[in-house]
Design goal:
The complex is a heterodimer. Chain A is mostly helical. Chain A has two domains: 3-76, Rna Polymerase Sigma Factor, Chain: A (Orthogonal Bundle); 85-178, Arc Repressor Mutant, subunit A (Orthogonal Bundle). Chain A contains ten helices and no strands. Chain A has helices at residues 3-13, 18-29, 32-48, 58-76, 92-102, 111-116, 120-128, 132-143, 148-155, 159-178. Chain B has two domains: 3-62, no CATH class; 116-253, Protein Transport Mog1p, Chain A (3-Layer(aba) Sandwich). Chain B is of the alpha+beta class. A seven-stranded antiparallel beta sheet of chain B has the order 1-2-3-4-7-6-5, with helices on both faces. In chain B, a hairpin with a 2-residue loop joins β6 (221-228) and β7 (231-237). Chain B has helices at residues 3-9, 11-23, 29-41, 43-62, 70-85, 90-106, 117-134, 146-152, 205-211, 241-253, and strands at residues 141-142, 173-181, 184-193, 196-202, 216-218, 221-228, 231-237. Chain B is globular. Classes of the chains: A mainly alpha, B alpha+beta. Chains A and B meet through α1, α2, α3, α4 and α5 of A and α1, α2, α4, α5 and α6 of B.
Chain lengths: 182, 255
């Protein structure tokens, strides 16, 4: 195999997804310079394992490497806490149902209007407050447009889990955006 | 117990998961119909749907998409470049090409195999697709209206492609452009799926034979030749292969 072939392949398969990679790393680590280190490391990993990419979504393949690199990186650098999903405390199911019960009933300003008026910094804070395993699903879907199947590949979980995390994450965001604004 | 199991246990939770999947265009047709019916009968669910849709729109429109910092891009290029200059033992190269050869027999296309005519043609389509994605806009005529896009092609290419309104199925029309492939102007109808761009080229007769048939992956992009209404088309996108096939089916079934 030619080495120029390798870098051509890298340019075609990995480079188009560097912006998505950087964005995912930023959302996972909350810090631009950490994200740069992680994306650089992930890019090298991707370059070294180009031969293992044969089929399917290049974006999902690249983002899976970025995600794994981010998690490994954060476990080595304790100051960045990627908290585990259980740290949220509440049982996922219970919480989704509780939130559901409070929704759709009478509020002075309709909930959906409050959400439509949300500003960028408000959205950013709300996303940053999500636990990482939920945050990554929301970011991959609503900011980067991946299909459920691609997200399942990136996050290494079944599609059912993608669905429940996405529902839960959006529920949290809706709640955060409508809290305290009557 | 897994999250899935938990999700399965409650009808209410299921209903909510299906609502999100419905709003994300991720349900099968029967499920979509059922979800739509449920929404019509349940005002609380409909209110929730409005909130979720507004949230999706806010996230899409208000959060800026940051480019890769130039410094990071340079660092990555440098590290790949360094890597490229490092010499690799011959045996590694041989082992790697064996791997590719074995994979290549299973996978339709590998750029490292000797490029046949079809592969070269595939690459030409993907080159155009990538160039369009890098441009300010992937289309030369921007319109979600099929009746604006179709006449735009008149006189610009040999044939005028079918333009179908698939927005109801979650594939809104984006517009059209003309690519030049092997000295021939080829009309491209551009659709989207979520944030993915789908190019559909209407093949002139000179390219029909060369493209062959069967879905394949070219440099990470899915390429799918298909026939519809007596003409040959090629679709390409970074959309998942099964979704792309579903989209081609929509175009084939369009009246």
């Amino acid at each position: 195999m030619e080495r120029t072939g390798d870098s051509n392949k890298f340019a075609m398969i990995v480079v188009p997804h560097l912006a998505a990679a950087y964005s995912l790393a930023r959302w996972l680590l909350g810090n631009g310079s950490d994200a740069e280190d992680v994306v650089q490391e992930a890019a090298l990993r991707a370059f070294r394992s180009l031969d293992s990419f044969s089929d399917g979504s290049a974006r999902a393949w690249v983002l899976a490497i970025v995600r794994n690199t981010a998690y490994t990186w954060s476990s080595k650098n304790k100051r960045v806490a990627l908290v585990a999903i259980d740290d949220l405390g509440l049982d996922e199911k219970t919480e989704v149902e509780l939130n559901g019960g409070a929704n759709g009933t009478s509020t002075p300003t309709p909930e959906h209007e409050l959400i439509a008026r949300a500003e960028a910094d408000q959205l950013e804070r709300a996303i940053a407050a999500l636990p990482p395993q939920i945050r990554e699903v929301v970011v991959l879907r609503d900011l980067q447009g991946l299909s459920y199947r691609e997200i399942a590949t990136v996050a290494c979980v079944p599609i059912g889990t993608v669905m429940s995390r996405l529902a839960r994450g959006r529920q949290h965001l809706i709640e955060a955006l409508t809290a305290g604004q009557e | 117990m897994t999250e899935d199991d938990k999700a399965q246990r409650s009808g209410g939770g299921d209903r909510r998961l299906l609502l999100h999947a419905y709003l994300d265009d991720e349900l099968s047709l029967p499920e979509t119909i059922a979800a739509r019916a449920r929404l019509g009968n349940d005002p609380a669910l409909a209110a929730e749907a409005r909130s979720v849709l507004n949230l999706k729109r806010a996230l899409r429109e208000k959060l800026p998409r940051e480019p890769v910092p130039a410094r990071l891009q340079a660092r990555i290029e440098q590290s790949i470049g360094l890597r490229r200059r490092a010499s690799r033992p011959i045996w590694m190269a041989i082992a790697a090409s064996l791997v590719v050869a074995v994979l290549g027999s299973a996978v339709a296309t590998s750029t490292f195999m000797r490029l046949g005519d079809r592969e070269r043609l595939d690459n030409a389509f993907i080159d155009n697709h990538l160039r369009a994605l890098k441009a300010t806009s992937p289309v030369d005529v921007v319109s979600t209206d099929q009746h604006t896009v179709k006449p735009w092609f008149n006189g610009k290419a040999i044939l005028s492609p079918e333009v179908v309104d698939t927005s109801a199925q979650g594939f809104p029309l984006v517009g059209g452009r003309i690519d030049v492939i092997r000295d021939t102007p080829v009309p491209v109808v551009v659709y989207s799926r979520r944030l993915h761009v789908i190019d559909v080229w209407a093949l002139p007769p000179t390219l029909e034979a060369g493209i062959g048939s069967g879905a394949r992956t070219v440099l990470g992009y899915n390429v799918l030749p298909f026939s519809a209404h007596g003409a040959r088309y090629v679709a390409a996108s970074d959309l998942a292969a099964d979704e792309l096939a579903g989209f081609a089916k929509l175009l084939q079934d369009a009246p």
